[in-house]
């Protein structure tokens, strides 16, 4: 009840002006002048009461409008986060809730406003920017005789924002500032959700792009294994992430099996992109070179400048196996492991040539060996030996050589035994690097 209404109805001691005037009006002993004066007083009191009722009604409507605005302000539609329209709706509700003439939301290089006067909004934006640029900031600053309020949101760089509230010629009260704090908290929440939403959308888009690029990169390796009489071939390649830098290439030329296994320094999508180009260069080299050394030199000539630009190198081994007599000629450009088992004994094939991209390769070394029945050639990537167990211990080259030494003569069975040994050592530990394994064994000489 307003003060005017309460004082009119009941004054001190329970008798208000209205009751007193009614008593005078109905007093039989009163004069006509007293009755006219009492009637005039009653009319004045009724007018005051009517005005008071209008004030109360207006105040109730204003409170209802503010409550409606507060509910609208806190009901954030997640699907609209990040859209300018959502921020404008928020400012409109904030303007209603705080009974402001103009409300602005200002960032480092953007601003939005709600209000009828663009010039007033521009002036408020300048004031808010000055507050954002101040060396010392307070959460809520009141200026212009209390008619302007700047509220700095609690957002990290580069998402700094501030709200500005302005009234035309009348000040914000203490109660109004509490409403400003409520708007500030709701806006802070909305801006935080917006930032998290946009970051999630960006991460999802990047992940989708990586998935597509990884699929394309891995598709480069998707080719059926060649079938060559007199040779058994096993091949497995597992990237540590969606895509990797390991690769393998096979070709059959004049009845001989050409093979190449490489490893791009690094892992993930960047390594996979380089890998796809290395695969293309290697495929051409296998079909156009006379021997493995020439093939490695051709790959080096094609990739040297490119690898220098991107700052990586590629380890590569290229070989050709003649099933007629089991002869293998191979060129090892910094790759490991490359192991040969002959008569039950295992030894490495030395890496006598620098990795591709480190030096220009012109006359690489070629190693020749012969595989008899029961022998095997194993070419892998360092992800095999570097697989860790739960305690961080590596599988290691010694274990790899032991498995090869005691393994079966079938390339398929030997390859699966090696992978099982590595997986058993890992015991559920995720691989830290790509893992590729190629095994070649003779299955009988073929006369030509």
Automatic annotation (TrEMBL):
This is PPM-type phosphatase domain-containing protein. Pfam families: SpoIIE. The lineage of its organism: Bacteria, Bacillati, Actinomycetota, Actinomycetes, Nakamurellales. InterPro entries: Bact_Sigma-Reg, PPM-type-like_dom_sf, PPM-type_phosphatase-like_dom. Residues 1-10 have a biased composition (Low complexity). Residues 1-20 are annotated as: Disordered. GO terms for molecular function: phosphatase activity. The keyword Hydrolase applies. Residues 230-442 form the PPM-type phosphatase domain. Keywords: Hydrolase. It comes from Nakamurella endophytica. Transmembrane segments: none annotated.
């Amino acid at each position: 009840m307003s003060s005017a209404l309460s004082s009119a109805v009941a004054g001190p001691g329970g008798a208000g002006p209205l009751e007193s005037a009614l008593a005078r009006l109905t007093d039989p002993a009163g004069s006509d002048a007293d009755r006219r004066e009492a009637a005039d007083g009653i009319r004045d009191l009724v007018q005051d009461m009517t005005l008071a009722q209008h004030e109360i009604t207006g105040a109730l409507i204003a409170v209802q409008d503010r409550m409606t605005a507060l509910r609208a302000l806190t009901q954030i539609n997640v699907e609209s986060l990040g859209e300018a329209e959502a921020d404008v709706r928020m400012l409109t509700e904030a303007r209603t809730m705080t009974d402001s003439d103009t409300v602005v939301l200002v960032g480092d290089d953007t601003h939005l406003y709600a209000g009828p006067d663009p010039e007033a909004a521009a002036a408020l934006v300048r004031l808010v920017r000055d507050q954002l640029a101040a060396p010392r900031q307070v959460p809520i600053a009141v200026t212009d005789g209390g008619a302007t309020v700047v509220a700095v949101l609690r957002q990290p760089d580069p998402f700094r924002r501030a709200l500005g509230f302005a009234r035309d010629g009348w000040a914000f009260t203490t109660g109004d500032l509490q409403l400003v704090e409520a708007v500030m908290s709701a806006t802070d929440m909305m801006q935080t959700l917006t930032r998290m939403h946009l970051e999630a959308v960006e991460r999802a888009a990047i992940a989708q792009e990586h998935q597509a690029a990884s699929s394309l990169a891995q598709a480069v390796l998707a080719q059926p294994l060649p079938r060559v009489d007199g040779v058994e071939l096993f091949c497995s390649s597992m990237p540590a992430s969606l895509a990797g830098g390991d690769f393998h290439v096979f070709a059959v030329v004049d009845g001989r099996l050409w093979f190449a296994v490489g490893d791009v320094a690094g892992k993930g999508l960047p390594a996979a992109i380089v890998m796809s180009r290395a695969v293309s260069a290697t495929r051409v080299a296998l079909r156009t070179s006379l021997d493995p050394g020439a093939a490695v030199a051709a790959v080096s000539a094609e990739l040297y400048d490119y690898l220098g630009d991107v700052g990586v190198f590629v380890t590569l081994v290229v070989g050709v196996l003649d099933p007629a007599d089991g002869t293998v000629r191979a060129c090892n450009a910094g790759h490991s492991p490359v192991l040969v088992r002959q008569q039950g004994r295992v030894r490495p094939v030395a890496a006598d040539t620098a990795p591709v991209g480190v030096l220009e390769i012109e006359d690489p070394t070629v190693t020749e060996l012969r595989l008899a029945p029961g022998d095997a050639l194993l070419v892998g990537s360092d992800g095999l030996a570097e697989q860790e167990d739960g305690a961080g211990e590596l599988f290691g080259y010694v274990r790899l050589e032991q498995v090869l030494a005691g393994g079966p003569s079938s390339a398929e069975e030997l390859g699966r035994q090696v992978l099982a040994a590595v997986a058993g050592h890992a015991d559920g530990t995720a691989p830290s690097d790509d893992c590729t394994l190629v095994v070649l064994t003779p299955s009988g000489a073929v006369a030509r």
